[in-house]
Amino acid sequence: MSTRRQDRLLTALLREDAWIPGPRLADMLGVTPRSVRAYVTALNARVPERDAVLSGGSGYRAGASAREALAARSGSDATPRARMHALVRALLDERDGIDVFEAADRLHVSEATVDADLSRVRALLDGTGLRLVRERDVVRLVGPEKEQRRLLSRLAHDEMDAADFPVDPFRLALAGGAITPEAVAPFKADLVAELAGLGYYVNELGITDVLLHIAIAADRVAAGRPLDAAGRESGSAQDPDGRAPGSARSGALRSDEIPREADPVARVIAQLAEDRLGVRLGPGDLAHLSGLILTRIVSPGGTDPATLARAGLDPEVEAAVRAEVVQAANDYQVDLIDDAFVLRLALHTQNLLRRAQEESRARNPLTRSLKAAYPMIFEVAVSIVNGLQNRLGLRVDDDEIAYVAMHVGGRLERSRRAESLLTATIVCPGYYELHEVLRSRVDRSLGQGIDVVRMITTVDPDASEIDTDLVLSTVPLRTAGDRTVLIQPFLTEADVERVQQAAARVRRSRRLARLREELSRYLSADAYVQPLPDVGEEGIIRLLGDRLVAAGLIDEAYIENTIHRERLSSTAFSDALAVPHALQMTARRTAIAIGVAAGSVGWGGGRVQVVALAAFSEQDRDAFQTVFEQLVEVFGEADSVQRILRRGETFSGFLDELAAVIDG
User: Fold this and answer.
1) Which of 240, 345, 422, 513 could form a disulfide with 469 if both were Cys (CB 3.0 to 4.6 A apart)?
2) What b/e string do you get for 585-598 counting C-beta neighbours within 10 Å, with b at 16 or more?
């Protein structure tokens, strides 16, 4: 039984915090409802006499002990993955190698099982510069120290990536070592403070990865395995005079021995490693770790020429970023042209190139939520990254694209707020300065989302005079509608909440009205496939794309460009919907081909229930954002998805239910 699928089921229940029908859970996991029932039984068995999962007429829901069940993961230590990781850790720790028979006894398995696990270790080492050497019953790991550390980091990250819940990477990487996981938190606090004191902005999202490298380095140095300047292991486990590894005599430097003109970041690391971790790092380790910090988690505290000169910004990188930003601004009709934004993104790109050269990556814990909540911003980031790949030979993953999306989102946030600003009229009968006090309070409490453009101080205003998005009235109005909110003369917190809810309804109604108008023009029965076969992303793209080719709307090149876009980053923007499309808007006429699965189909490492292949023409450039973002919003709501899918056996049923959901 799949422990991983059990964890995914429980994670889905925790995320939604609501009853989920069994068939829907089965579709999400790509299994049968019977398997779902078996997973629920196994999950509840992890926490006897308590409820990890509640069952009822409405399906399943996370119980009070759900998080405890995730942490338990009964029997996980006996899995092939766990055994392989234990063997790798032992090989990394033991210079003289490990005895196969002793390893079998320790893991409570047969020698044949250990041999099979070692075969998986050899596969893991492909392309790393490391290899296994076996002499009779003893197996040793041979290769550069830098690669051994990278392997240890990879093990920790594999556990993080495989888990559907937060895990502590330090406990795995430092298991049995000289550095305790508890020492990392105070080290981090001091490191962030010191870097801020040097004038750097610190990327808190990426700092865990760098701290993992620092902790591993300190642990390896404490075990007598420091790096030399070339990244190789220097010294032996013990110096001839018997000094402990990592001491000044074995090549390590006390923090006060580092020259003043040396890299200030290296000085900070040396001091903190000595104070907090009890380890003296040598020049090779300090150079390596300061380089990691400078390319992974910090950026200069300004964009003035002097600061950029210190950062060593490559003019070629800056020119490439500027060109792609201009291109994206034109393609998506967004306001990205800003020198400060371009320079910061160029610095980030330069560090990204350095990370790529070292075959290291900066993980982003917000990647999934950014794709789901801001698909258009993520799409602009994909476009910029695609252009930088062509200009600079850049190769990145979703996490790196998410960091670019955060830069783009920061730049666009101001203009997005302006677009979502609603106009309002306040109706408050005049009595001394009461209406002025009310307006002042509304501006303070709601000013970021609502612009009061008119103040009416009569008891019964003429409805024809009010043309704003919202009406905030202290008295009941004869012509009150959905846009009218009754508030108190002295605005209360409850009033503020009701106005915000009304504003959200107006914004949503406006967005979805535009979506319905667009979809009515772009969908057709000839480009509707149900049931959609589970033939992989490229197979589905070709299947739906052929419908649009047959209609004369796109050519084969558009399908290939759509597949290229999919390889850059999965277009599954929610648990239910994928929206494959090309980066170029070259369709002869805008159209969307829809595929609805009988259950779900595999897509981007997960599963989706609907695939909407979107082909946009140059003339409909403005519609791209409306259709793209709002379609993702509609299919991001579980109840709406199930309503649409229930009638999705025919195109007319699908379209009618989609329209009903949009209309609310």
Assistant:
1) 422
2) bebbbbbbbbbbbe
Note the pLDDT of residue 309: 46
Inter-residue contact 638 to 24 (CB < 8 Å): yes
What tokens does 305 get?
């020429």
User: What is the percentage of the chain residues whose pLDDT exceeds 70?
Assistant: 88
DSSP 424-438: EEEE----TTHHHHH
> What is the average per-residue pLDDT within 226-249?
48
Q: Which H or E run includes 529?
A: strand 528-529
Q: Is 32 left (phi over 0), alpha (psi -120 to 50) or beta?
A: beta
pLDDT digits (tens, 9 = 90+) for 214-223: 988 998 898 8
Residue 48 CA to residue 98 CA, distance in Å, equals: 38
Give me the CATH code for the 421-509 domain, please.
3.40.50.2300
pLDDT in tens, 348-362: 898 888 887 776 777
Which token pair is 11? 């994670």
* Residue-averaged pLDDT of the chain: 83
526-574 pLDDT, tens digit each: 999 999 999 999 999 999 999 999 999 999 999 999 999 999 999 998 8
| CB of 472 closer than 8 Å to CB of 427 | yes
Domain boundaries, the chain: 3-74, 181-300, 305-395, 421-509, 523-663
Token pair 């009903």: residue? 660
Match 């409570």 to its residue by tokens: 108
Whole-model pTM: value is 0.71
Strands (E), 82-182: 98-99, 131-135, 138-142
Beta bridge partners of 424: 452, 470
Q: Rounded to an integer, what distance in angstroms lies between the CA atom of residue 246 and that of residue 243? A: 9
The CA distance from 205 to 213, in Å, is 15
Superfamily of domain 523-663: Mannitol-specific EII; Chain A (3.40.930.10)
Dihedral over alpha carbons 159, 160, 166, 172 (to 10 degrees): 50
Please give the pLDDT value at position 250. 43
Q: Could you please state the CATH topology (level 3) that the domain comprising 3-74 is classified under.
A: Arc Repressor Mutant, subunit A (1.10.10)
The pLDDT value given to residue 138: 93
**Whether the Cβ atoms of residue 557 and residue 615 lie closer than 8 Å to each other:** no
List C-alpha distances in Å: 154 to 139, 408, 640.
21, 29, 40
Residues 337 and 345 sit within 8 Å (Cβ to Cβ): no
299: part of which helix (H) or strand (E)?
strand 298-300
